[in-house]
Amino acid sequence: MQLEILTLCREARYNGQVLDVAGAFDILMTPRVPLVVPVCWLAGRVRFERIEEGPHEIKIMLIDADGRLVAPEIVEDLAVQFAGDLPTVCKAFAIQFAQLVLPEHGEYAVKVAVDRLCLASVPLYVRPGK
Fold first, then answer.
1. Strand 74-80 versus strand 54-64 pairing type
2. pLDDT value of position 90
């Protein structure tokens, strides 16, 4: 399995076939903390090989620089099924974070694991500014 896309963004939609992503970002500027982000999305796409067909578990964590959870972790079952003779299949996701609270300036990370194997991590920087 391979994570092809992983980004935080202002908006994401997945209709079962197409993943639409708008406004990808990795830096938030704020004069004061805690910062409350009213709405943001995590968009991703994982490609599976035919040998990986079957049930899987995806886990998503948002952590601070010390590895502490900033939001509740997301754990979902993921069924990978093949139709036809394609050698690979993609599973995409668009997950909304509402009222996300980032308590301090600094570095955060979103980590994605499938079957307890960390596939990727993307940073999120909260910096002082306007």
1. antiparallel
2. 95
Q: What is the CATH number of the domain that holds 7?
A: 2.60.40.2550
Q: In terms of Cα–Cα distance, which of 113, 102, 39 is closest to 75?
A: 113
pLDDT of 111 reads: 98
Torsion of CA 104, 12, 7, 1, to 10 degrees: 130
Q: What is the mean pLDDT of the chain?
A: 97
pLDDT tens per residue across span 57-93: 999 999 999 999 999 999 999 999 998 899 999 999 9
Helix, strand or coil, per DSSP, at residue 51: helix
CA–CA dist 62, 16 (Å, integer): 25
Cβ–Cβ < 8 Å for 71, 37 = no
Count of structural domains within the chain: 1
Looking up tokens 């599973």 gives 91
Count of beta carbons in the 10 Å neighbourhood of residue 103: 13
Q: Which amino acid is at 54?
A: G
Task: Quote the percentage of the chain above a pLDDT of 70.
Answer: 100
Spatial separation of the C-alpha atoms in residues 116 and 118, rounded to whole Å: 6
